[in-house]
Extensin (Pontixanthobacter aestiaquae), 244 residues
Amino acid sequence: MADKIARISTQIGRFRTDRLVLAAVCLVAILVAAQQWLSSNPQHNPWAPLDLRNPPGWATHTKLSELRRDKALCRDVLSRSEIDFVALAAEGEGACARPDRTVLSRFPYSGRTPATTCPVAAGMQLWLDQTVQPAALEIFGSAVTQISHLGAFSCRRMYNSKTGAWSEHATGNAIDVAGFELANGIQISLLDDWNGDSQKSAFLRRVRDGGCGIFGTVLSPDYNAAHRDHFHFDQADRNWGVCR
């Protein structure tokens, strides 16, 4: 009887060992598969360097947020993404000091290309490539050739008040976008088309929504009357975003 019990105990022990070995093998296989998948999908990999040519993924927003605190890292991302830019000398002082003045060399701005912070520049390039152009091609069958803006830098407080918080525009950490022109001649403006032509309105809402995963703040005509004619995009350094 004792021998039988011993044999059963040995079998049970072997079974437990076999299960542990099988579990370890499965875990290793899962880790290897996950590593291979992350290597093929760097937009989801929190440890992969940010490349703006990759589609947005699970880790993109966090990586963009990190750029708000590190100008050198941001410019490394632009270089890695093969985006031409010019780093201008610092200007201003006090609340309107602009230590980061970055100009995108080939961005299709209408008129003079504004100097923004690098995180805003990176956001605008990602927004154009991953949201604006795909939406324009799908809805209108034509690419955007110009993006009109109302400026980036303005040394002022929010809503031009005398005592309120300083605007992100005060350091060039924001830009206001007013409209678009397509290769086929179609022109789209927020003032005229937000609640107008159905296709243009659909386009504007799609590109607004696409900006919400890229910028720290996105304000549209849905927010208030002061934004009836433009999108406000900024890269405010905070742990929460605004999308309205």
Notes: Residues 25-40 have pLDDT under 50 and may be disordered. The chain is about 40% helix and 15% strand.
